[in-house]
Amino acid sequence: MSEINKLAEIEYPNSKGMSDPYRYAYERKAYIKGYEKAQEWISVEDRLPKKQRHYLVVTKGGNISKDFFGLDYNQFDEPRKQPFVIEYTHWKNLPTPPKQ
After folding, report:
1. Cα separation, 27 vs 33, whole angstroms
2. Beta pairing, strands 64-70 & 53-59
3. Which of 1, 13, 43, 60 has a CA-to-CA distance to 29 between 20 and 30 Å?
4. Contact between 91 and 60 (Cβ < 8 Å)
5. What per-residue confidence (pLDDT) applies to 18?
6. Does one domain contain both 29 and 7?
7. How many CB atoms lie within 10 A of CB 4?
8. Low-confidence stretches of the chain (pLDDT beneath 50)
């Protein structure tokens, strides 16, 4: 069973056993809900990234930029270089680039 089917059954328990068009609609709603959850900003107070790569970040002043998170020092690059100048409040994954 796919992750989407599992999510559809959890989020919409009445969808089990429905005909395909209805099942598809419930699965689509579950997929969108999961996608929206993945796009939410995460507070640096709640948790930090688990992978070493670039992320979108929000500064205390509300500016959005891109920064690299390093696992070896467990923080983003810019605040590490300028600790009294830059402070981040939230982060999230970079969006997927468009397909050409």
Report:
1. 10
2. antiparallel
3. 43
4. no
5. 62
6. yes
7. 14
8. none
Write out the two tokens for 84: 């009294």
User: Residue 58's beta-bridge partner residues?
Assistant: 64, 90
Q: Which H or E element spans position 33?
A: helix 20-38
Query: 3-11 vs 20-38: helix axis angle to the nearest 10?
Result: 100
Phi, psi of 82 (to 5 degrees): -130, 70
Q: What are phi and psi of 30, to 5 degrees?
A: -65, -40
CA dihedral 44, 49, 53, 55 (to 10 degrees): -40
Asked if 34 and 10 sit in the same domain, the reply is: yes
User: Range of 31's domain?
Assistant: 3-38
Please count the structural domains in the chain: 2
**Token pair recorded at residue 45:** 């107070």
Residues 32, 55 within the same domain: no
Instruction: Give the whole-angstrom CA distance, residue 90 versus residue 41.
Output: 6
Question: Distance between CA atoms of 47 and 40, rounded to whole angstroms?
Answer: 13
Q: CB–CB of 92/41 below 8 Å?
A: yes
